[in-house]
Amino acid sequence: MIRLFSILYTLCFVLSACTTAPKGPENAVNLTAQLEKVADVHQWQMRGKIAFRQGKEAASLNLVWKNDSGDFDFRLTNFLGVSLVSLNVSDKGSTLEADGETYVDALPEPLIYQITGMVIPVKPLLSWVKGLPIEGDKFTLTEKGLVDTLESDCKTCQNWKVSYGNYGSVKMANGDAVWLPHSISLTQDAASSTAHTQLKIKIYQWNL
C-alpha cells in the first residue's frame, strides 16, 4: 500500500478561507424543495481546499473536483498548482495518477485505498458533498432547515459521519438557485485496521 502521506509533504491541518464564507439563508427554507433541487444537480465543479488527517498524519492541499452524472475528475495540487494526485472515473473504469505512477481499476474505491489507506464510499460522497442525504441516512437540520449533520447506515460506508457549514446560494443551469455547503467535515471512527480519519473540505467556488 502506498500512503498518501508519503507522497505529500506533511502540512498544517488548517483550512483558511481566502474569501468571505457565505452565511446561509436569512429565512427558513423548504426542505423538500431544497433536496429536490440538490438531487437535480448532476453536473458541478468545486474549487477549494481539502485537509486529511489519519491518526497523527495530516496534509492540506488545493482541490478541483468536476462531476458529470457520476463521471468525475478529482485533482489535488500544491500551492504552486502542481498536480500531486489525479483521479478520473468514467464508465470505462478508474485511473489514479500519483507520484509519477498510474493505477487502474474498474472501481475508484480500491485505488483510493491503495494510495491513502482510507475506505471512502465514492458514490454516496457524490451526494454528501452537496448536502444531500442518501436512502437510510440519519440527518439533522439547521435552524434554517438545511442539512446540518448526517450519519449513514450504508454497510459499505464504514461509519462515516458528515457535518456541514456555510451554505451559500448557487445559481443553477436553469436560472434557479440552490443552497450548497461551502464547509464540509467527514469523520470516520477508528477501526481494527484503520486509525481515526477526518476529511475537511473548504469550498471557495461552486459552478453548476
TrEMBL record:
The entry's protein name is Outer-membrane lipoprotein LolB
Predominant location: membrane
Where located? Cell outer membrane
- A Pfam family of the record is LolB
UniProt entry tagged with the keyword Membrane: yes
Signal peptide region: 1-23
Q: Which InterPro entries match?
A: LolA/LolB/LppX, OM_lipoprot_LolB
Its subunit composition reads:
Monomer.
Which keywords has UniProt assigned to this entry?
Cell outer membrane, Chaperone, Lipoprotein, Membrane, Palmitate, Protein transport, Signal, Transport
Q: Which organism is it from?
A: Alteromonas mediterranea
Keyword Membrane applies: yes
List the record's Gene Ontology CC terms alphabetically.
cell outer membrane
One GO biological process this protein is involved in is:
protein transport
How does the protein's chain sit in the membrane according to the entry?
Lipid-anchor
**Membership in a protein family:** Belongs to the LolB family.
